[in-house]
Amino acid sequence: MQMCRELRKKGITDERVLAAMEEVPRHRFLDITLLELAYEDQAIPILCDQTISQPSTVATQSQLLNVQPGMKVLEIGTGSGYQTAILCELGAKVFTIERQKGLFDKTKKLLWDMRYNARCYLGDGYKGLTEVDYGPFDRVIITCGAPYIPQPLMDQLKPDGIMVIPVGSEQQEMLRITKRPDEEPLVEHFGNCRFVPMLGNIQFKYQ
Ligand code: SAH
């Protein structure tokens, strides 16, 4: 498919990620008026002033995350559910958190209709999933721009687990963090990117 050819050109080499991207119909995650853009490599507006990430961004984060079948993955920022569906295609058990009720309701239903078995939660991603005893996680992926690395998410990551997170305010840097049992976490840098901001509790109260 054209999109996967573009992704290869942009440096995506993980065949499992490419196969997953081929499998998931991105147009199902978009508003009907924007359908013709579904397979272009661009971010597109969805409900609640948010965006569905660009395919190359989804592919890059998925590749960095190195998901193996059966792994427990925590995703922060469900949004349209497109990244969630890719993680499901990769064989992960996905737990995903969204703070906007409108998106949460719509996407939970869509994923269910498409037979993706992700567990969707409405809540504050800064906290991770404390109230339910599903952690710790093999992988954590954040799909909104985080001003810093939230400690609860580090705490919910297994030893040797991997977190992929865009860190910064206006613009972010893509980081891959590997939690090591007896050492400081390993932090690797993968260039600049731009995500909608990861919002905290204060905004959560008033929006
Ligand atoms: N992966 C999604 C990206 C959506 S944009 C997709 O491809 O569609 C990022 C999403 O993160 C938005 O839906 C936004 O509402 C959500 N978000 C922002 N801050 C959050 C927080 N603290 N907790 C959970 N979700 C958050």
Summarize the structure.
The protein is α/β, with parallel strands linked by helices. Helices cover 29% and strands 25% of the residues.
For the record, give the distance between the C-alpha atoms at the N and C termini, rounded to a whole number.
40 Å
Average pLDDT: 93
Structural class category: alpha/beta
| Ligands, ions, cofactors | S-adenosyl-L-homocysteine
The major sheet is characterized as: 7 strands, mixed
For the secondary structure, the number of strands is 9
Q: Please count the helical segments.
A: 7
Rounded radius of gyration (Å): 16 Å
Strand fraction equals 15-25%
- Read across the widest sheet, the strand sequence of neighbours is 5-4-3-6-7-8-9
Provide the low-confidence segments as ranges.
Answer: 202-207
Report the principal-axis shape: globular
What's the helical proportion of residues?
A: 25-40%
Order of helices and strands: HHEEHEHEHEEHEEEH
What does this structure look like?
The structure is a single chain. The chain is α/β, with parallel strands linked by helices. Helices cover 29% and strands 25% of the residues. The chain has seven helices and nine strands; from the N terminus they run ααββαβαβαββαβββα. The protein has helices at 2-9, 15-23, 55-65, 82-89, 101-113, 151-155, 201-206, and strands at 44-45, 51-52, 72-76, 93-98, 119-122, 137-142, 157-167, 172-178, 186-193. Strands 5-4-3-6-7-8-9 form a seven-stranded mixed beta sheet. Residues 50-53, 76-77, 79-80, 82-83, 97-100, 103, 124-126, 143-144, 196, 198-199 line the site of S-adenosyl-L-homocysteine.
